[in-house]
Amino acid sequence: MRLDINGSTIGYDLWGEGETTLALLHAYPLSRGQWQAQGEALARALALRIVAPDLRGCGESSVGSEPLTMELDLLKKTPRLQLVSNNENSSIISGPKAAPSEGDAT
């Protein structure tokens, strides 16, 4: 799939449904294709919406004029978002979390 954000094209795959979205971020210079098997399996096992975007300049995504625009747009558009990166130079990144609803387990 492709999406236009702020004049740039972002390629992505999407699996599953749910209130919470897990974004799988690939390492440079790879593409979202490396997450194919995991995306499908995680969506089934965890009942989450899973998105795997091509980061700017990789796969089907254009370079763009602002390096962090895509990542910031993902955070703004998806209030319950968890990010996972497989880049050896980064750790697992946790995005903003919504406050638990009354009756949610803590």
List keywords for this structure.
single chain, 106 residues, alpha/beta, Rossmann fold, 5-stranded mixed beta sheet, 2 helices, globular
Please identify, by name, the CATH architecture: 3-Layer(aba) Sandwich
Overall domain count: 1
Helix and strand string, N-terminal first? EEEHEHE
Q: Oligomerization state of this entry?
A: single chain
Order of adjacent strands in the largest pleated sheet = 1-2-4-3-5
Q: How many β-strands, per DSSP? A: 5
Q: What fraction, in percent, of the residue positions are helical?
A: 10-25%
Question: What's the CATH first level?
Answer: Alpha Beta
Classify the fold: give the CATH topology: Rossmann fold
Question: Which word captures the global form?
Answer: globular
- Alpha carbon gap, first and last residue: 35 Å
Classification by helices and strands = alpha/beta
Structural description of this entry:
It contains two helices and five strands. It has a five-stranded mixed beta sheet with strand order 1-2-4-3-5. Mean pLDDT is 75; it is low at 89-101. It is an alpha/beta fold and 106 residues long. β1 (2-5) and β2 form a beta hairpin. It has a single domain (2-85), classed as Alpha/Beta hydrolase fold, catalytic domain (Rossmann fold). It starts with a strand and ends in a 21-residue tail after the last strand. It is globular and about 35 Å long.
